């Protein structure tokens, strides 16, 4: 590649001037040696077509040629020989011509050693004068070295240097390399100076040049490729000088381009060089536009001139050429004429003035930078300084209102121009009045339109003229008359205000107002409301810890403030808001919690909160699935999957999800699996992506969910099926819940009943079964799940095989399901089979009737006559029957009306009684808040359960022995305690006692309780003994009848079990069961005391026990007495005592009245702290009449024969509202401690009066209701007579039952509920029974159920329900015990599996709860099932709990007395125990007998074999 660069070098002027002429012949060796060329940095062509400079000033390798030739020498013809040229010395102007270091044939020029000096050198001044004429100069053609035969002389050799690594862009422009015109017609007119034909050299275009067309073509192609690489190359020096810059159009170049890469071309116009002219050197000497004179800001739509500052424009000699200013605006070119004015002081400077023009742009922005340049009218672009552009601006952009316009930058000179359509424009364009004061603010929108009354809502106000700075509106924004604090950071001038509302503290509404300086006041058309959101309810109230529960919050004005600032929290946990918010309803989904806890629900409005007082959302334990079945389904789906687990009812939307994905297959030859990649086009009936199918499930209970499998319409060949149960945020894979993976099977196929002609009905013969043929019938369904119907009748499926279905139809033809047509085949029932989601219509069914027998005509006539006679007789009978039946119907209706009246009265009575009782119990509940339930302490609780029936606990006695032997005996008892720690001794001891005939069941229970007290401090060891003995008991009963185990307390281990349960469940009784049990007890007592109670017989009007029912209609009325307690006050102080209102009956005895008064006065006091009723007298104070002591028996008592009636308030005629007082009795009375009373075994007040003498009675005489003798109770007739109770009395039982129903349900629910953690001991012992059953091969669930019932409900709960005095410090009575006995029996019946067939001979108490027992049974079964499914209790957990119990209650019981009582049995059976120990080898090794003898010697001072 070759290039020619012509540069003008400025040097110091030297006179006289000379003219430089360019030779048109190659340089030869004939050049004189006196001509010395300056050494300039050599330059080689870069391989990429660019040059690498080493000289800082010129960036090229230059050869300075100082030549002077005569005019004649220019006219000489060119020859093959070189012509000698004359060199002028000391030239003033030189033409610098760059020569290539590389030619087109890539042959390098010969070089010599480089000259180190980089300067430009000149020769001495010339000795000849300059020519006085200057001929036109034409292009000097320099042939390449391969054309000429000349070589460079040594003195003119180009020095070379290493090519640098940096590249310089080529000087070619795209259009400069695209064409090379050679015609002179392209020259301007002032250059068209022709030479005479005789003077034109013949070899200006030599033959070698004209014959290189192919090479020229290749060169042009090469140049084209070069320009592609150098689109942004800078201008060459010669191009700049000629004005041929980056023109916008290059279609008509003014000068010929390079024709051949081997030539150097230089184009200069005539007159380009002037004698006596000074020249400059370097890029800064080129003509260019340096910048804009004045401001570069131009307003749109305003005629403006642009003045540019130019430099070196004087170098252009063609002053007649015109100039143009060009602006590039949004891709379009705006051209204006321009004229150039020179600077007189500095001719190198000039001013280019662009003519007036209006500029505009469409872009929606305030400023637009338009690129600008200057060009000559021949489309020759003049070089410009970097970033030469003007800035157009539009005042209306971004200044849509007055305030924005006035706050615009002053450099724009924008004003708000008034008129009909005011706008922001350039000041010079405004033809209307300029507005100085902006109009009042306009408010377009306010968001949000509501906020809480506490304030704090971020309010966004959008509008116009909303102030010109923050200070204008900082204190002037009000919302409904309340200041709103403006956020300076969010303020946007004139258009937007963000402020924080202040608090109104009351609901109010109003407009938003903004005031700006100058009196402008803007009011919004919108109404902002201060609202007080009210949260009224949240549902549901609980959900699993895993979250996912959808809460619905109801209330009013919940959508207040910005929706983005509304959040819901449960405690500190976020509840993610779902769907769209509404004014009265919000929905959110709970997030997970790491613990089970109750937390408040809060709605946050920014920094304001609202919560529902008194409501806590409970995070319950997560639902858990333990098992699911079955594991198959048809493709059509619809099969019910039974999902078992715990806490399943806390889930809101349980779902079953089926995920079907392409299966993995093994590639042949490779031992790995790969997943089939989906094809571009999915084949038909193939699965190419993962699909999911979901169905909602039905919650059956807390431990069961029913899910129907979804239908999938896919082939089963190449798919994988995954089944999951989605419980809100939890997911359970079916693989972990069933040993067999879940799978889908192909759908079954059933053939029509009448396969030959399905349109005809199938004829069914009654008594036979219907057989249906098909395929794949039992692949994924059981016969119990198949529903076969014939019309409205059920066809019971008996057998289901792979290819057959057998069902038993109804005996008679059922009616069709849709009775549309009464006749024809459509009236026949359709046979349908439902298998999951599949419904098969298999044809209609017609039952065959008995075929008509053919009789002879005579027989038919005779039959007809006989039938007529029979019909006549039947009509007569029917007439008589209807007459009788009408009479019976009238009687029946009378009875029915009586029964309805009776039912209505019972219902009304139950409702009234229940209302009264609930009112009383609410008062009792409020009293319990302050006083609490009178629980017994642990010592009293344990003693009453361990030793029932004892007047005094054996542990309360001391050691009855002389003081001299006490220490020795106590040491012996300590040794006995240590000996009991031997498991072998203890088991031998128990087994030895149990085989003794004189060891009664009472003794067994007593010894078991003594052992319990003795080992109470070592409950882990006690439990181990219990397990060992229980194992022996199971082996004993398995050999006989396992269902009888634990039914009675016949062994020591059975009583030990009762005591063990009592110890472990004490905390559960106090914390959970105590309250409902106490409420039931108080409810019974209140209801019983509400009606008459016979003090002698113990019978009451209100009871559940028919044996304790008072079968008399007694007239009585309720009295309200004002009672004063005078146990510590004198009679004189009575006036100052406080009265207590007590409700009594006028038929109550005086003792009953005293007890009711004490119950009212000491209702919050334990029974042991109350005074004894027998130690007090009831004194009636009747004002002026004085005081009267009332008693059960006195001289006023009514005596009739041998019967003496107890005195009542009615006997003394005590009026309603009378004042009575309890005063200390002055006469001696029998203390209550000495009465013959055993808790739970009350006896009537009246003993057997057959001995004669006076007999007491109260309401009814005992002989009026004789009890049946025991030897006569077995006869049916006597039982019927005993049950001949009038209906009115049975309604009393119903009334009592209905009144107490809620309390009974509450108690049973607490005992049998698993919503709270089941006591650890119950779970542990039930698991122990399950293990024993499995160990002994007992698979009958009824047997295991009986064991659990006998161990927990029978041994513990029945005992607690019958005897509330075991838990509470209360006093029971016979009538209360009778009611509790019925409830306890009902509880026991609910725990049994066997169904009780009720009839006319069934006990009344069983009939009372006949409808409730099945419901209670379901509770028991669910309770047992839930316990079975909970996590098993380990021995470590149980031992830890037992150890804690031992520590807590170790000092409560007197174990020394228990050991001493236990030793009495050792002493009684001493020989038998010693013999048993001596017969056992292990006991002999452990010397157990010897240790027992030592104990006997210490305790009894017995002489032994020691």
Sheet with the most strands: spatial strand order: 16-18-21-20-19-22-23-17
Discrete helix count: 29
User: Which structural class should the secondary elements be placed in?
Assistant: alpha+beta
Q: What is the CA-CA span between the terminal residues?
A: 135 Å
The percent of residues in helical segments reads 25-40%
The average pLDDT score comes to 75
Low-confidence stretches: 1-277, 666-676, 1127-1136, 1229-1251, 1265-1286
Main sheet characteristics:
8 strands, mixed
SS elements, strand count: 61
Q: What would you say this structure looks like, in words?
A:
With 1506 residues, the chain is of the alpha+beta class. Helix content is 27%, strand content 22%. The protein has an 8-stranded mixed sheet with strand order 16-18-21-20-19-22-23-17. A hairpin with a 2-residue loop joins strand 7 (323-329) and strand 8 (332-342). Helix 20 (1341-1351) runs parallel beside helix 21, helix 22 (1374-1390) packs across helix 24 and helix 27 (1470-1479) runs antiparallel to helix 29 (1488-1499). The longest helix has 75 residues, at 857-931.
Helix and strand layout, with pairings?
Elements: E1 6-7, E2 63-65, H1 71-75, E3 95-97, H2 207-210, H3 213-229, H4 237-242, E4 288-292, E5 297-299, E6 303-311, E7 323-329, E8 332-342, E9 349-358, E10 367-376, E11 380-384, E12 389-393, H5 402-406, E13 414-417, E14 423-426, E15 434-435, E16 442-447, E17 450-452, E18 458-464, H6 470-473, E19 477-479, E20 482-486, E21 496-501, E22 508-516, E23 520-531, E24 534-539, E25 542-544, E26 550-556, E27 566-570, E28 573-578, E29 585-590, E30 598-599, E31 601-605, E32 608-611, E33 617-620, E34 624-629, E35 632-634, E36 640-646, E37 654-662, E38 664-666, E39 673-675, E40 691-696, E41 698-701, E42 704-708, E43 719-727, E44 730-733, E45 743-745, E46 749-750, E47 762-764, E48 770-775, E49 787-790, E50 793-800, E51 804-808, E52 830-835, E53 838-847, H7 857-931, H8 938-946, H9 963-980, H10 983-994, H11 1001-1014, H12 1019-1038, H13 1052-1064, H14 1066-1090, E54 1118-1125, E55 1140-1145, H15 1150-1161, E56 1176-1181, E57 1187-1190, E58 1199-1200, E59 1203-1205, H16 1209-1212, E60 1219-1224, E61 1255-1257, H17 1276-1282, H18 1287-1311, H19 1320-1335, ...
Parallel strand pairs: 4-11, 5-12, 17-23, 25-33, 35-45, 47-53, 54-60, 59-61
Antiparallel strand pairs: 1-3, 2-3, 4-6, 6-9, 7-8, 7-10, 8-9, 10-11, 10-12, 13-14, 13-15, 16-18, 18-21, 19-20, 19-22, 20-21, 22-23, 24-26, 26-29, 27-28, 27-31, 28-29, 30-33, 31-32, 34-36, 36-42, 37-40, 37-43, 38-39, 41-42, 43-44, 46-48, 48-51, 49-50, 49-52, 50-51, 52-53, 54-55, 56-57, 56-60, ...
Helix pairs in contact: 7-14, 7-18, 9-26, 9-29, 10-27, 11-13, 11-26, 12-13, 14-18, 14-22, 20-21, 21-22, 22-24, 27-29
